[in-house]
Structures are given as structure tokens and as C-alpha cells.
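Journal club prep — side note

Before the paper discussion, L.F. wants everyone to see what a predicted structure for a comparable chain looks like in C-alpha cell form. Sequence:
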Amino acid sequence: MTSSPDTTTPMPEPLYKRVMLKISGEALMGDQGFGLHPPTVQRIAEEVKSVRDLGVEICMVIGGGNIFRGLQGSAQGMERTTADYMGMLATVMNALAMQSALEGLGVFTRVISAIPMDQVCEPYIRRRAVRHLEKGRVCIFAAGTGNPYFTTDTAATLRANEMSCEAIFKGTKVDGVYDKDPVKHDDAKRYDSVSYDDVLAKRLGVMDASAIALARDNSLPIIVFSLDEPGGFRGILAGEGTYTKVLG
């Protein structure tokens, strides 16, 4: 006979009330080499829902590297501005896929694009986006900043500041920031915390330099954790789990 779960123990108060979740487009590929892997999208959506159920207000930015990456297009001879705009459109596709998965779980979601495309998503209007968050909706910010030469890392940091987020959660393949690639080096050491300046000086690859500088200038902490660890996102907000915090 199985015992029923204990519902008398209250969940701890979340460490943050409003957060930005930044994930790469590659995180949606699963084991594929390209595109979207629906079970992976579903799993990430369930992670987001579990955090939303704690009462946390969630913003999201998803990269587009699983479909098209502007820098790669530019390296192959494409004009950089055109390549970057194509990459922005890829982020809209990923955002719509995540919206569909979240709404299938009963989570009200808005895709908000820096490039107006009214038939499929809302244009970015800061006050409207803040109101969505206050009403408990997940806001997925797409199309980067709307400008070429800026990455989705920078877009996530910009939107996090505009939305008054208390932290950026950067979901990766590893459980924090290491002094060297832990996949290639068995002796790699994970930082419990690291400063913005050390990330820049040691080129630790958490986010691009402009994103780190923007976070530093606004004292916005970045929490790097493994998106592959089930319950990791929720666990950190409950004060548990393994991660690295980037802060001043």
C-alpha cells in the first residue's frame, strides 16, 4: 500500500519572486542535430510550470541556434545583418513552440517579439509585458533586441533589467561554471560563486561580454545551472541544488 504525499509541509518561500530563464536553442534539440525535439520542449515546459506553481513570475528568452545562428551564417559569407535577422526569426519559432507546450499544461503564456509580427505574437511594450507578469502569465521574449550584432544573451539581460527581474537563470548542459570544460577535463573545478569581472577576465563563457557587463552594471545576479537535471530549476528557487552564482 503506497502512502499519499505529505501535503501538510508548506513549500519554502521562493528565493526570488520574478526571474528570467535564458536557454539556448540547442537545448530544445534533445539528441537531434537540428530543429525541435517535442519531448524535450515538453520537459522544459513542465520545469517552467513547476516554478510558476510556486508563485514565481517568469520571463524567458530562448536562442535560435537549433534552427539558424547568425554568426555561423556570417562566417559562411552571408551579410551579417541579414544573418542576424534570420537568427531572430528562429527565436520566434522556438518561442511559439514553447508557448504551445506551456499552454498545453494550462500555463497562460505570451510571446512578445522585438520585431512586430502581429499575426503570431505581441510587439514588445514594456508596461504591457509587466502587466502580463503581474497577472501570472509567462512572458517569452523573442527576436532578441530587434537589432543585429546583439546576442540573445544580451537580449535576456536587457529584458531582465527592464522587467525588474531579481535574477537571470542560465540553463546549460552542466551544473555551473567551471574553470575549464568539464566534458574535456576530469580535473575541472566548479565555482560556487564567481564575480562578473572574473568571468570577463578569465573568459569563462557564461554569457557574452556585453551581457555580463550589463548584468554587472545593474547588479543583476546570474545563476548557472543544469537544465538536464530534473527539478533543478525549482530546486534552486527552494534553496537547494547545485549551481554557480555570478555576482559582484
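L.F.'s comment for the group: The domain at 18-247 is CATH 3.40.1160.10 (Carbamate kinase). Keep this in mind when we get to the figures.
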